[in-house]
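Worked example 2:
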Amino acid sequence: MKNTKAEKSTTAKSPKKSAKPRTSAEMSPVLHEFFVDELKDIYWAEKHLTKAIPKMQKAASSPELQQAFADHLSQTQEHVRRLEQVFEMLEEKAVAKKCDAMAGIVEEGQGVIEDTEEGTPTRDVALILAGQKVEHYEIATYGGLRQLAVTMGHDEVASVLEQTLNEEKETDALLTSIAENNINYEAAEEEA
């Protein structure tokens, strides 16, 4: 018996079912291990930043930029505490694993301090750019981790990660605002 065109179109493809979050018990142990490994990576990054941010704050000459770095240091310390909370929620030990990406970004930030003249708007521009590179890495990481947490059914973990993600976005926007409102223009008028 032959199928008509109408029958073929209804039987050829079934509609996609929407994926619903699974419980931890149903989740792939491989995905869980990857998720925890990535948490260890960002945990190291945040802890490393608590040492790098004071150096950036000290190198900045703009009081507004110095304050932004001081505020972000406090926020980063809170991010470390939140990650420890996430590990606890997952019944995992809070262990840091070196984040090569953040190590490289921080090293580059140290390089801009060394390559620019102290007390100049150009150094402040370089520090803002270095800070935004940090923020963008963190935004990408926390965004991905939050989505994985949702996929895995860890709604409380997702909520904690989203809170940090939103703060990273706010810091990025603040750095942009500081640059646009005065520092970039001051650097543009700086004499050689």
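Helices lie at 5-12, 29-59, 63-89, 100-115, 121-151, 155-188. Residues 90 and 157 are 8 Å apart (CA to CA).
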